[in-house]
Amino acid sequence: MYVYGAFIYPCENHFDYHQVCCAGLCFAIENRVLGLFDQFAHTLILSTLIVIVNLGLCCRVVLQKHQRMRRSMEWRQHRKMIIQFVSVAVLYMSSYLTYGSLQCYQLINGPTNLSTTIQQLYFFYLSYLVGLLHPFACLIGMPEVYWRRFCAEKRRILLHLTTRPIRIVPAFI
């Protein structure tokens, strides 16, 4: 479907340099059904699946620990993992879901001044931040990695080497 829309779909690009994206995929602009499908399939559904799978993994660990141990859950042991899953889920929800839902709104109702302004000012570059912030969201759950890095620099011992003169040479006047 995507190969057909990107390479085979008959269309001609119209370059409008006053738009944020002046030449996107033709099928997404000209055909609302294909554009809406593209937004749902590649943005909304995938982001929702990432959030659901992260929360499902978290629930699975909690349930397995409770069933195997037959005792109450100690949240301190699983706090790092839960924080990591939640941070990744919040990262994807705050960027891709908001941008994808705004795109779907524009495809259904047409672009308005408010939606275009919000898209251009806030959500257009937000998808690039996901790739940049994802490693840091993963590092939130691994404090031993960054504590080792930053604390090692503080533990260094600085040696102050001083030179002492061996003999004094008189200055010639």
Explain what you see.
With 173 residues, the protein is mainly alpha-helical. The protein has a domain at 37-154. Helix content is 71%, strand content 0%. It has helices at 2-8, 26-30, 32-69, 75-109, 113-123, 126-140, 143-154.
Unreliable segments (pLDDT under 50, ≥5 consecutive)? none
Q: State the end-to-end CA separation.
A: 93 Å
- Mean pLDDT rating: 76
Would you list the SSEs in sequence order as H and E?
HHHHHHH
The biggest sheet amounts to: none
Helical percentage: over 70%
Structural class: mainly alpha
Range of strand content: under 5%
Total number of strands: 0
**Gyration radius over CA:** 28 Å
Separate helix tally? 7
Anisotropy-based shape: flat
Give a quick summary of the entry:
This protein is an all-alpha fold and 173 residues long. It is 71% helix and 0% strand.
Which labels suit this protein?
173 residues, transmembrane, 7 helices, flat
Task: Please outline the helices and strands.
Blueprint: H1 2-8, H2 26-30, H3 32-69, H4 75-109, H5 113-123, H6 126-140, H7 143-154
Helix pairs in contact: 3-4, 4-5, 4-6
